[in-house]
Amino acid sequence: MPVLDPNPQNGQKKMLLVFGAFFAIFVIIAIIATIASP
């Protein structure tokens, strides 16, 4: 199993989903911090 697949079938979508979820969590944390700050 190669680490870098030249033509990934489902790996790229999974990476995009993980990155999207991480970005969404980061945005939610930023919004909570903005609301919580006096």
TrEMBL record:
* Protein name per the record: SGM_5486 family transporter-associated protein
Name the source's superkingdom.
Bacteria
Q: What is the lineage of its organism?
A: Bacteria, Bacillati, Actinomycetota, Actinomycetes, Kitasatosporales
Q: Where are the transmembrane segments?
A: 15-36
What keywords does the record list, in alphabetical order?
A: Membrane, Transmembrane, Transmembrane helix
Could you tell me which NCBIfam families the record lists for this protein?
SGM_5486_fam
